[in-house]
């Protein structure tokens, strides 16, 4: 059909107010209406389709050898790693154009998140088929998949791993040590430097001591000290060392015959002091105390407890009393004569209590009669008249009636009795007011000795 031409002429009349204004305008345009001659036999009706990084599969009414004849339909697809943008199917139209366009864009996955304490490296960035391998900082291990791959759909394979702190910290304890107990003690003060812990991941570590603190006294034997350390991931490490405290000891010191020992500390350890004591009626000969040396030997020589020798041939009361100073207590009995009933009664009770008096370190002095027949004695040992008179004057003891004077170890007048005293009453007073704590303990141990 031949092309047709159309001409249009427009005349616009505008009127306003009282007059009329005429605008003449001639506007001619030409519209071409073209209808191509359809030819299904033309092999190049549309331009030959192409798709970079993709593939075009066309089906023509004329057969498989034709790719762009009128009516041909082409299916568009992209290569692996590319995404199709546009029409996936196009058709060759009568106007010699395809019904749409398409192109292939290279696909990529999203940017992977960074992992704390680690990193990743990728073979081709974030493109399809790129593999990203994960590694961790020293002290951390990959927990999960070690790599992820960008898949054709733009999705990463697997899940994001984490870097886990599985490496325990390291701690080193001080070396074990041997410490000798201090003189006179069963313990030793031991100090050491607090151990230092290290961890490849954390700088701040929690170190816990299990056992005694340094700088304190450790008892004899083996003492185990432990340290534990935790990092922030609660990985644990531990170490231990031994503190051995040795108490150097002497052989056990035997007590003297007719006597006993009182020792400080544990009795035979280095620095311990043992004091010698004698039973009633005996006095010490030799050193009064010995000390356990570092060499495990006792200093000095053993002492002896020998029967107490009382000299009665002294010339004064003071000379007599000096023999008892800090050794014995004195119980002085005085009566007008041996026939005095109070004296006789007291004498019988004193004789029966002789063992108890020895346990309490008490010696009995008797003053009987009046001059010139006055006598003074300790058992069978007699005193001179000067000693008897001196005792009476110093302690104001009358010859006119029965009396008893109790003196302590320092020779001081502690109590007077003007009537006979039973042994239980006398011993009760001595035990309560004259014995020290140690003597009371000794008395309890030997109380049955006199039964």
UniProtKB/TrEMBL annotation:
Coarsely, its chief localization is: other
Output the GO biological process annotations, alphabetical, semicolon-separated.
Answer: angiogenesis; cell-cell adhesion; positive regulation of cell migration involved in sprouting angiogenesis; positive regulation of synapse assembly
**Claim: Cytoplasm is one of the keywords in the record:** yes
Name one cellular component (GO) term: cell surface
Q: Which UniProt keywords apply?
A: Angiogenesis, Cell adhesion, Cytoplasm, Disulfide bond, Repeat, Secreted, Signal, Sushi, Synapse
User: Entry's Pfam families?
Assistant: DUF4174, HYR, Sushi
Looking at the record, the residues that make up the Sushi domain are 56-106, 107-165, 248-307
Signal peptide extent: 1-19
Question: Which SMART domains does the record associate with it?
Answer: CCP
InterPro entries named in the record = DUF4174, HYR_dom, SRPX-like, Sushi/SCR/CCP_sf, Sushi_SCR_CCP_dom
Question: What GO MF annotations does this protein's record show?
Answer: signaling receptor binding
Q: Where in the cell is it found?
A: Cell surface; Cytoplasm; Secreted; Synapse
Q: Where is the HYR domain?
A: 164-247
Q: Which cysteines are joined by disulfide bonds?
A: 136-163, 278-305
The record's section on SUPFAM superfamilies has: Complement control module/SCR domain
Q: Which PANTHER family match?
A: HYR DOMAIN-CONTAINING PROTEIN, SUSHI REPEAT-CONTAINING PROTEIN SRPX2
Q: What is this protein called?
A: Sushi repeat-containing protein SRPX2
Source organism per UniProt: Xyrichtys novacula (Pearly razorfish)
């Amino acid at each position: 059909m031949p092309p047709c031409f159309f001409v249009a002429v427009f005349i616009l009349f505008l009127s306003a107010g009282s007059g009329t204004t005429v605008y003449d305008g001639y506007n001619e345009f030409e519209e071409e209406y073209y209808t191509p001659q359809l030819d299904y036999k033309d092999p190049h009706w549309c331009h030959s389709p192409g798709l970079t990084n993709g593939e075009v599969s066309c089906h023509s009414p004329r057969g498989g050898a034709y790719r762009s004849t009128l009516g041909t339909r082409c299916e568009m697809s992209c290569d692996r790693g590319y995404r199709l943008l546009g029409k996936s199917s196009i058709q060759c139209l009568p106007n010699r154009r395809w019904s749409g366009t398409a192109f292939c864009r290279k696909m990529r996955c999203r940017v992977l998140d960074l992992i704390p304490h680690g990193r990743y490296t990728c073979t081709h960035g974030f493109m399809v088929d790129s593999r990203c391998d994960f590694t961790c900082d020293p002290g951390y291990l990959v927990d999960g998949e070690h790599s992820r791959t960008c898949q054709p759909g733009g999705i990463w394979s697997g899940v994001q791993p984490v870097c886990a702190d599985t490496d325990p910290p390291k701690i080193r304890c001080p070396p074990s040590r041997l410490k000798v107990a201090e003189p006179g003690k069963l313990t030793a003060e031991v100090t050491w430097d607090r151990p230092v812990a290290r961890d490849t991941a954390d700088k701040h570590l929690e170190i816990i001591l299990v056992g005694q603190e340094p700088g304190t006294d450790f008892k004899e034997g083996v003492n185990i000290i432990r340290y534990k350390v935790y990092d922030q991931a609660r990985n644990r490490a531990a170490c231990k060392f031994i503190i051995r405290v040795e108490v150097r000891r002497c052989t056990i010191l035997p007590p003297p015959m007719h006597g006993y020992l009182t020792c400080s500390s544990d009795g035979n350890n280095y620095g311990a002091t043992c004091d010698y004591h004698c039973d009633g009626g005996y006095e010490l000969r030799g050193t009064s105390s010995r000390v356990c040396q570092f060499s495990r030997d006792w200093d000095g020589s053993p002492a002896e407890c020998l029967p107490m020798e009382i000299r009665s041939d002294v010339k004064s009361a003071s000379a007599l009393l000096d023999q008892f100073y800090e050794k014995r207590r004195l119980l002085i009995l005085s009566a007008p004569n041996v026939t005095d009933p109070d004296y006789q009664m007291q004498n019988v009770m004193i004789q029966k209590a002789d063992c108890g008096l020895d346990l309490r370190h008490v010696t009995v002095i008797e003053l009987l009669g009046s001059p010139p027949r006055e006598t003074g004695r300790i058992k069978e040992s007699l005193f001179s008249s000067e000693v008897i008179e001196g005792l009476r004057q110093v302690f104001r003891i009358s010859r006119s009636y029965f009396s008893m004077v109790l003196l302590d170890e320092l020779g001081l007048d502690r109590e007077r009795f003007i009537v006979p005293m039973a042994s239980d009453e006398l011993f009760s007073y001595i035990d309560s007011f004259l014995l020290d704590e140690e003597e009371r303990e000794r008395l309890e141990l030997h109380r049955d000795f006199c039964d």
